[in-house]
Design a protein that fits this description.
Number of helices: 4
Distance between the termini: 52 Å
Structural class: alpha+beta
Strand order of the largest sheet: 1-3-2
Shape: globular
Order of helices and strands: HEHEHEH
Strand content: 15-25%
Length: 97
């Protein structure tokens, strides 16, 4: 059954609002293509970032485009992860050493 009215479904509006809140509340945001990372690597990176008060979330490109309102839409290709917080840059550098 199709919805009667066109537009964004409530559950997608909720996801977009949550992403918008994360983006607006972060001091910085890094978009990363996580292709090739397996589950243990992803889990280790998430734990490393969490220990440093930063977050790593896999995001749907279309939902993130709505939250960013065109600011970085051309960067969203493939499998996208959003890293945000206050000290993640050091965490990422340390992780890849």
């Amino acid at each position: 059954m199709k919805p009667q009215s066109k537009g964004i479904r409530p559950e997608k509006q909720s996801i977009t609002a949550e992403l918008d809140e994360r983006v607006s509340g972060a001091l910085y945001m890094i978009l990363a293509d996580y292709t090739g990372m397996d589950m243990p690597q992803t889990t280790e990176l998430k734990k490393n970032l969490s220990d440093r008060e930063a977050s790593f979330n896999v995001v749907n490109n279309r939902m993130l485009k709505r939250a960013l309102k065109g600011e970085a839409a051309d960067l969203l290709r493939g499998q996208t992860a959003m890293i945000y917080g206050s000290v993640a840059q050091r965490s990422i550098r340390d992780y890849w050493k």
